[in-house]
Amino acid sequence: MSIKILKNKEPSAIKSKLARMIKYYGEIIDHNEKFGVERKDWDCYEKLDAIFGTHENIAPSFIANRSTDIDGEESSGMEPKTPKRSKKKERVWEKKLKLEKERIEKNYTIEMGKLEVGKQRWEFERDKMKMEHELKLKEMELRQSNNMSQ
User: Fold this and answer.
1) Region Disordered: which residues (predicted)?
2) Which of 35, 74, 100, 134 has the fewest CB atoms within 10 Å, counting from its CB?
3) Model's pTM, two decimal places?
């Protein structure tokens, strides 16, 4: 690719120049973020900020991984595999999300069932205690009426 764009530059020279520009861009960002210092400007700052301004990591993969080899020319006949992979990944993520949603719905149904059973149990206990209370009251009334009649 570099052969087509910059015919008189070596790929390693382009790579090192870009690495130095990105390093300097990072230094300017660090300097400008400090409180109470005068702002630095650079003629390439706006262009690099437009490219990297929203990214947390400004190091491209070829700079972050120094062991990357530089190829002379790319073959234009080969189709990129990334769209196929991304479609597969997208299908996997959709399936994963669908399964997660089903799991959450099942857990919700189970928890609602448990709550309903608990509610019925407490209602039963409440009714049981109410009946026992009424029974004891009637027993007390009966004893009291027997004691009065004797």
Assistant:
1) 64-90
2) 35
3) 0.35
